[in-house]
Amino acid sequence: MSAALRYGLLSAGRRRRALVLPGLTVAAGAFLLVLVVALMPAVRRAGAAFGDAAAVGRATLVISAIVVLLGVLEVAITATRSIVQRVREIGVLCTFGVPPRSVVCALLVEPVLTAALGALAGASAGAVVAVAGTGAGLIDASVAAGTVAAGWGAAVALSTVAALAVSAAPAWRAVRRPPLASLTS
Amino acid sequence: MTQTATRAPAVAVQSVWKLFPAGDGVVHALVDIGFTVDSGEFLALMGPSGSGKSTLLHLLGGLDRPTKGEIHLAGQPTTGLTESQFSALRHSTIGFIFQSYNLIPFLSAVENVELPLMFEPVDRASVRRRATELLELVGLGHRMHHRPSRMSGGEQQRTAIARALIGAPQVVLADEPTANLDHRTGESVIGVLEDLCRQLGVTVVASTHDAAVAAHATRVLRMTDGRIAPADPPVSQ
Fold first, then answer.
1. Contact residues of A toward B, CB < 8 A
2. What's the angle, vertex CA B119, arms to CA B195 and CA B131, rounded to 5?
3. ipTM of the shown complex
């Protein structure tokens, strides 16, 4: 399996330009999620003015999670597009007798890595902005380190797991095609 | 005492049929094909488009299955093999050369040659050495780190030949290996393939409609309408 991971990393490195946009989308989602989680006390306080602080807090959190999932969807679309573009490569690998599980593993490296790196960057930026904004007095709330860390972890884990989940099916479908169909497509 | 060694042919095809559904009927792509290829032979399958050459090569490589009949590769029957068993057999026994090269665009020439062994738990340095040797043998020692987009068609096909041979296969299947090349480049490529396979004792089965390719073969089978055409009668002395 390590050989498949090595091949996946090699291809992700060589194809990195195609991964910038989905990575940025995931990063934006993770940034928002961490910021919202960190600033939840302030959001709740502001929400209290509208009558239901908990409901406003929940709605804000859900919206942030949706933004993260939109980022993951972008990763999934990119993964599917990339698999379509790489169908001949998949056919060649299968023709030369590379086991399907290894091919799937290699194909999954790209979307998972994109989502993980995008989420890491976005979530870290979100944490920095939340802490710095509070410290500078720009944000009217106290930000607990534990809350920021929880938001950061949730954003990275959600993005990575969701990217893995949504990319596995197209990758598996691609390797289950007869090699001849992949080679002649 | 004289011992007679009985060695299985590299390829044995027995009464193979391939039918494809077409509308309400069927197309007889291959009809009762039978032949053997001995180890080290260079067999050219010649015939016009649609004569069944490529279909036959696909069956030999396990990329498709015969409707009826039996194919043995390196003495091993292939009927009844599961896809993963056939995949393992392909990996250990067969090298492929395609008409359109099918090199991986983001890999360099030497990485493309290494591709069939990239997923193996083998010593990377020895694979790199072997890939380098093969690229030098096909005359591409100076193009080792070039990507396919920066190589000519002839160079790409020579890279594909090196890739087909990296796993030390017993049989190389070449589907119209010169069809995308001009005559002179095609001649040079097929010469490289012939020389290398002779040196390494590899059996070659190549489909072609190019008489120049067939001229390099040790034997030619002519195909028409899914059948092997009867051999020309020997010229009477």
1. 3-4, 6-7, 10-11, 14-15, 88-89, 91-100, 102, 106, 178-180, 183
2. 30
3. 0.87
